[in-house]
Design brief:
Helix content is about 0%, strand content about 45%. By secondary structure, the protein is an all-beta fold. A six-stranded antiparallel barrel has the order 2-3-4-7-6-5. Strand 2 and strand 3 form a beta hairpin. It is globular and about 30 Å long. The two termini are about 20 Å apart.
Length: about 100
């Protein structure tokens, strides 16, 4: 979702695994969260710390289970951030970048 307008290019599939996001703003802070869905273009996830729209981050998914055969870019751009239903959490849209 970008500015309240749906602009998906690829269809999304429900996909629930842990995700680790590493801020690349110089701090290298590690943020834990969980994915909600996945597409060829990106991931929707929930995290415990807000990020800024436009931030470039690195992310990691588990190397086993449903992720064992996935090959995804390691860098991504935060496209949107909104409060999640769970207090203190945020829902984010992550677009893969190469």
């Amino acid at each position: 979702m970008i500015d309240g307008i749906e602009k998906r290019i690829y269809s999304r599939k429900a996909f629930f695994v842990e995700i680790t996001i590493i801020e690349s703003n110089g701090t290298g802070a590690v943020i834990k969260g969980g994915t909600l869905n996945l597409s060829r273009g990106g991931i929707c996830a929930t995290i415990e710390k807000p990020l800024e729209k436009g931030d470039i981050v690195k992310f990691g998914l588990p190397k086993d289970g449903p992720c064992k055969d996935l090959t995804l870019p390691e860098k991504a751009e935060i496209r949107w951030v909104v409060p999640a239903k769970e207090e203190g959490h945020f829902k984010i849209g992550i677009m893969f970048v190469e």
